Amino acid sequence: MTGCFAPSAGSEGGDGGKRIRVAMMQPPRSGLSPLSDDAFKLSRWSAAETLVRLDADGDPQPLLATKWTQNDRTWTFTLRKGVTFHDGTALTPRAVVRSLERAAGASPKPRILDGVRLSAKAVGDKVEITTSQTDPLVPHRLSSPQLSILAAKAYHTKAVDPVGAGTGPFVISKVNGTASAALDRYDAYWGGPAKAPGIDVKFVPDGTARAAALRSGEADIVEAVPVAQASLLEKNQITEVPMPRTNTLYLNTTSGPFRQASLRAAAREALDTEALVRGVYEGRADRADGLLGPALPWAAQLRDTAEGRAEAADPDGAKITIGTFTDRAELPEAAALLQQQLEKAGFEVELDVREYSAIESDALEGKFDAFVLSRATVLDSGDPAAYLYSDFASDGSFNISQLGDKGVDSALRAAAAAPAGEERREKVMAAEEAVLGTDAALPLLHERVVQGDAVGVVGSVKDPRERELVTRSTYIK
What we know:
4-stranded antiparallel sheet, Peptide/Ni-bd, Dipeptide-binding Protein, domain 3, 11-stranded mixed sheet, 19 strands, alpha+beta, Dipeptide-binding Protein, domain 1, SBP_5, ABC transporter substrate-binding protein, D-Maltodextrin-Binding Protein, domain 2, SBP_5_dom
């Protein structure tokens, strides 16, 4: 990491403030398109904004929209006045409609719109959003960074280009492929100028290198410090927060040995998840009893043991390939330990480990018998129903298990249709129980986020949902 930031990084800005140097885990995979997971980089840099934001409890709050009302399938949003995009054009109802229509018509759709059809239109100074079915989570969905509102210039080509097109306190000024990016303060920001003059970002997939950057003073803020590196940092440099992220072993239900429910059951019985927590995560994680973890405290209160699971059969040397990726430093080690546990149970196991950008498409196409994934469970809407639908519905866009189960689909639809509140939470847990009953996904553990901050960092956000990091209030002393 030595010298990896630009010479000006961390130097004095024009007003005497210091630029914030950030080492991020994953490089952009889609040119920073908000229609991909790159959207979360835009929100963590405060470069792009959505109509709605979520508070700490997961409830929707105003952002670019100041209020909203519902009439059956139609929601009406009032826009914040005085907002401009980074190119100087004004935020208008038509601009909002343009962004939402592009997302709704994308192929593939942003995950937040899995199973949802919506249309938007400008009505005077407001925006009306109508869904094909009554949807109680429209405001939650509109908080997803994948539904960021951008200026018209972002849509001049087939690809969506957010450079200079957002509304946040920082404007993207330069992107160097998958290596780095730079952002400058946007002085015309509707909420008032940011305290820091800019952000310099370096993409560092190697976790050891990220931690070394903090120790050496090369970075001010470091994403996802590996647990093995956390003990090497000063205690006042790290923050550990239980997060809604679950490590899961997804089993391919349509091809290979795990087509048989009895062999999926054998894999379930072979796993020692406590050994993963102790040995790989050094105790900085929580053993998983389900897909939803302690970041959602109501989940454990409402969870019932999955019933009707298949009886385990003897693997008898069945050959399986487990895939995972190197971007999260613990996953290859976790996969190696799972390999040992499954081989002890009678499977013959091969590992396939690559960078995430090189393995995602194969995983989604069902080319592995099993896949170890670290998955955020409320990343998009603040509501786990969207994650469950995306990962386990027959038409889910992230269905690594290739699961197609009518009972699961029915439970997922019921959860998606339930009104926000206790009833929805009960339906969500019924859907979790249905998924676990198939053994298509074996939850391993729930992660805790370990973020590294230099001593002089003020106001960086430790966000369990990984939506915020640097805001207008973040600066370097």
